[in-house]
Amino acid sequence: MQVGGAAVPMPPPRRGRRATYPLADLARRLLPRIYPIGGMFQLLVDDDIALVLAEERHAQAMTDLIVRNQDRLARWEPWAEQQATLDGTRAYIRAALEDFLRGRQISTIIATDGGTRFIGRCGMRINPYAASGDIGYWIDAEFEGRGITSRSARTLVSSVFRELGLRKVELRTSVDNQRSRAVAERLGFIYEGILPAGLRFARRADDVALYGVTVDQWNAARAGATRRSR
Q: In this structure, is residue 33 part of a structural domain?
């Protein structure tokens, strides 16, 4: 299973210093690039896949998706050790939307069939003071191995670099999560080292593999891929 990018709390606002990308900038820069389809905000990945901004009305579908994958997710994500509930999902969505409005998080659902079938998650926590992000993702078992996670993550990373002006995106995952690490490396993230016991579960702690890519590295890789395709 492809699960990566463990959520990391962002630092609190620093007194006397304004955020580089506050609410007004986030909404102005990002929302025009997200296209409303069927009443939902969606960032198109390709003809088959879209990233849907999670809203409270999606709570039941999201809960069902998590429950179907609960055991698989719990192997790699501490939050999944607690049984998913509708109330819990609603609370998470409300908090994520508040973070979105504060310019601190973009929480999207990976969707297919014109944005009507939810099959995974792809999100980004944002540190506006460092102009950096921390990406995370997971995919439903039925859709694993089709490249959907990589395509979704690539679209989101390109968007935050282009539209929000972030300078770096990081990805953190268990050192033993080979699928997630393969996604990171396929996308061009650079391995930066290990964070000992960075993922703490109820009865264990996993070391975390830390990956990162700067906007310059990302753009250079995309330009090289374009030249090779010609």
A: yes
**9 within a domain of the structure (yes/no):** no
Q: Are 14 and 148 in contact (CB under 8 A)?
A: no
* Of 58, 26, 27, the residue nearest 40 (C-alpha): 58
Residue 2 falls inside a structural domain: no
- Tell me the two tokens of residue 63: 């809960």
Q: What CATH number is associated with residue 40?
A: 3.40.630.30
Rounded distance between C-alpha atoms, residue 38 and residue 44, angstroms: 13
Domain assignment present for residue 10? The answer is no
The total of structural domains in the chain comes to 1
Identify the domain containing residue 24 by its residue range.
19-229
Size (the chain), residues: 230
102-140 pLDDT, tens digit per residue, is 999 999 999 999 888 999 999 999 999 999 999 999 999
Residues 152-161 pLDDT 10s: 999 999 999 9
Decide: 84 and 66 in contact? Cβ < 8 Å. yes
10 Å CB burial of residue 216 (0-12, 13-18, 19+) is exposed
With beta carbons less than 8 A apart as the criterion, state whether 41 and 33 touch.
no
> Would you report the helix, strand and coil content of the chain in percent, each value rounded to 5?
40, 30, 30
From CA 197, how far away is CA 205, in angstroms rounded?
5
CA 109 to CA 123: how far, in whole Å?
8
Q: Assign residue 51 a region: left if phi > 0, alpha if psi is -120 to 50, beta otherwise? A: beta
Residue 188's closest CA among 204, 208, 168, 203? 168
Q: What would the two tokens of residue 214 be?
A: 């700067």
